[in-house]
Amino acid sequence: MEAAGIKKQITIAGGGLAGLALGIGLRRRGIPVALHEAGAYPRHRVCGEFISGLGDDTLGVLGLERVLEGAQQHRRTTWFVRDQQVFQGTLPEPALGISRFLLDQRLSESFRQSGGSLITRSRVPDENVPGLVWAAGRHRTKGHLWLGLKAHALNLTMTDGLEMHLGRGIYVGLTPVEAGRVNVCGLIRDASTTTAKGSEMFLELIEKRGLTGLASRLRNHDIDPDSFQGVSALAFGPVDTESPGCRIGDAHSLIPPFTGHGMAMAFQAAESVLPYLESYSKGSSDWQTTVESSQHSLAHRFKRRLQIASRLHPFLLGSIAQTMIGWSGRMGCLPFQRLYRAVR
Ligand SMILES: Cc1cc2nc3c(=O)[nH]c(=O)nc-3n(C[C@H](O)[C@H](O)[C@H](O)COP(=O)(O)OP(=O)(O)OC[C@H]3O[C@@H](n4cnc5c(N)ncnc54)[C@H](O)[C@@H]3O)c2cc1C
Question: pTM of the entire structure?
Answer without folding.
Answer: 0.94
